[in-house]
From TrEMBL:
One of its GO terms (molecular function) is ATP binding. This is Zinc import ATP-binding protein ZnuC. Keywords: ATP-binding, Cell membrane, Hydrolase, Ion transport, Membrane, Nucleotide-binding, Translocase, Transport, Zinc, Zinc transport. Residues 4-219 form the ABC transporter domain. Its EC number is 3.6.3.-. PANTHER family: METAL TRANSPORT SYSTEM ATP-BINDING PROTEIN TM_0124-RELATED, ZINC IMPORT ATP-BINDING PROTEIN ZNUC. GO terms for biological process: response to zinc ion; zinc ion transport. PROSITE patterns: ABC_TRANSPORTER_2. Gene3D superfamilies: P-loop containing nucleotide triphosphate hydrolases. It holds the Pfam family ABC_tran. The lineage of its organism: Bacteria, Pseudomonadati, Pseudomonadota, Alphaproteobacteria, Rhodobacterales.
Length: 246
């Protein structure tokens, strides 16, 4: 079942066209990852999908009653306004202590309940954000670079946790990631953005698409090496990876 979809969607922000003519959809249980250079509109796409920015053109559909667990790319916590993890997890919606404890336990962060938000490490902060998303009982997690600031083991652990949560809850996962090697192994589909959708498809298809190579070259942290495989088809002259594979 389709949870979120757009047709020919464009978004202008402060006179700048951040996204143009984007066709997108995600179905129940899918893991879809968005890749693209800085400023290519990845965060804007997520914000449009969750309803935080309005499309200036085209259509956007959300399944009625869709529950979204959103983790933003940046969340500034003012250290002069102390707020505990327990309080943070009750905003904007009140949650019971039992629900909060269960969510924190599920993300492996039970010990953080009484800590101050500004005092959390990068990994603790990201887990707390994920706990907050989990409290929404989401049909879809929308995660904007959920491993920001984490070291490699920390980020691998967080991706494992996301995968487990998807498995347990059946929720779809839509995320932005710069960690292409992870993207390549963990996603059902990858969308490569550069103001518009450059190419999309299964990870191996995107990795071999000329548009993707033009943006990321071959120095993709092993992504291409990981997916170097025998082709029994040709990409010659292919301008849209999706045509032959999706
Ligand atoms: N409020 C705004 N007003 C004007 N321009 C904006 C606004 N927000 C974003 N932009 C511009 O829109 C473009 C897309 O921004 P966006 O944050 O979606 O990119 P991104 O792909 O998520 O980038 P990054 O990888 O650096 O996080 C950028 O050129 C950005 O400068």
């Amino acid at each position: 079942m389709t949870l979120l979809s757009t047709k020919n969607m464009s978004v202008r922000l402060g006179g700048h066209t951040a996204l143009r003519n984007v066709d997108f959809s995600i179905a129940s249980g899918e893991i879809v990852t968005i890749v693209g250079p800085n400023g290519s509109g990845k965060s804007t796409l997520l914000k449009a999908l969750i309803g935080a920015v309005k499309p200036t053109q085209g259509s956007l559909e959300r399944r009625p009653g869709l529950r979204i667990g959103y983790v933003p790319q940046k969340l500034h916590i003012d250290p002069t306004l102390p707020i505990s993890v327990r309080r943070f997890l009750s905003l904007p919606k009140k949650n019971s202590d039992a629900e909060i404890n269960a969510a924190l336990a599920r993300v492996g962060a039970s010990d953080l309940l009484s800590k101050q938000m500004f005092a959390l490490s990068g990994g603790q902060f990201q887990r707390t954000l994920l706990a907050r998303a989990l409290l929404e009982k989401p049909d879809i997690f929308v995660l904007d670079e959920p491993t920001t600031g984490l070291d490699q083991p920390g980020s691998a652990a967080l991706y494992n946790l996301i995968e487990e949560l998807r498995h347990e809850t059946g929720a779809a996962v839509l995320m932005v990631s710069h960690e292409l090697h992870v993207v390549m192994s963990a996603s059902d589909r990858v969308i490569c953005l550069n103001g518009h959708v450059c190419c999309h498809g299964t990870p191996d298809v995107v990795a071999s698409a000329p548009e993707y190579r033009a943006l990321f070259g071959t120095g993709t942290q092993g992504a291409l090496a990981l997916y170097r495989h025998e082709h029994n088809h040709s990409h010659d002259g292919e301008t849209h990876a999706e045509h032959s594979h999706v």
